[in-house]
Amino acid sequence: MKNTELCIPDLAPDTFLVDTHCHLDMDGYQDDFAGVLKRAKQCHVKNIITIGIDLSSSKRAVQLAQSYKQITAAIGTHPHDVANMTDETYQKLEQLYTANRTHIVGYGEIGLDYVKQHSPPEVQREHFEKQLELAARLKLPVIIHNREADHDTLDILKRAAPLEAGGIMHCFSGDCHMAKKIMDLGMLISIPGIVTFKNAKKLMEVAATIPLSKMVLETDGPFLAPTPFRGKRNEPAYVGYTAARVAELRNTTTDRIARVTTDNAYKLFNLRN
């Protein structure tokens, strides 16, 4: 990819971005992994949190974090895969954290997905609660997946509250009313590249109105690439397009959005320079 294709606004030399949610271990990145990291660096993306979706993926996330200063890891089991979780899975996830504390900054992604239901909803709810308990024991912020499960997601999070290490609602897709309920639990709202889509009216309103102190940014790569790359593979360099769109919606500068959301991510995940 030529640098001229990356048309995000220039940021000040000391302004950086954080991609709080990407799946760098997935096959879509393997052919040009070095290029993905190089482009991210060129586009001021200083930190990328790569997210585990099951035990194997969590191990790969940790291996990437061990190998690259730019990357840190989150571990956990996605709601699609919780039907395969056993007591041994929990033990191994805890052992993985204990052996790699300096590389693991979050627990997730975990939560509920009532759209695809690869795992039965009742099983999803059971393991969502159990994984929240493990995250609390490990003192890790949680990364929550919620698709068409608002009521149950909020109910379980309220029962788990207070979330002493905090957390984020990943790839937020709700309205301002839902955003307020999430923020009232002490969590942050993660804005994905969907905010650049013309039909994403609810998300645009959320991005325009919630306190900036409650916002972080993400790609969810390799999925959900922002405009002008919609339909193609997403990658961390593109988080700048999301920052630029949020800045436009809030009538401010991309520098300001980058600085504040980066500071929010650094505080939540205890990231290091």
Detailed description of the structure:
Pfam families: TatD_DNase (PF01026). This is TatD DNase family protein. It comes from Desulforhopalus singaporensis. InterPro entries: DNase_TatD-rel_CS, Metal_Hydrolase, TatD-like, TatD/YcfH-like. The chain has one domain: TIM Barrel (Alpha-Beta Barrel), CATH 3.20.20. Helix content is 41%, strand content 16%. The chain has 9 helices and 8 strands. The protein has an 8-stranded parallel sheet. The radius of gyration is 17 Å and the shape is globular.
What pattern of helices and strands is seen along the backbone? EHEHEHEHEHEHEHEHH
Please report the number of helical segments.
9
User: What is the second-level CATH architecture?
Assistant: Alpha-Beta Barrel
Which strand order does the major sheet show? 1-2-3-4-5-6-7-8
CATH superfamily: Metal-dependent hydrolases
pLDDT average, as an integer?
A: 95
Unreliable runs, pLDDT <50, ≥5 residues?
none
* Percentage of residues assigned to helices: 40-55%
- End-to-end separation in angstroms reads 27 Å
Task: Tell me the CATH topology.
Answer: TIM Barrel
CATH class: Alpha Beta
Biggest sheet details: 8 strands, parallel
Shape: globular
Please give the number of β-strands: 8
Strand fraction:
15-25%
How many structural domains? 1
Label the structural class. Answer: alpha/beta
Rounded to an integer in angstroms, the radius of gyration calculated over CA atoms is 17 Å
Family: Belongs to the metallo-dependent hydrolases superfamily. TatD-type hydrolase family.
GO cellular component, one term: cytosol
GO molecular function, one term: DNA nuclease activity
Keywords: Hydrolase, Metal-binding
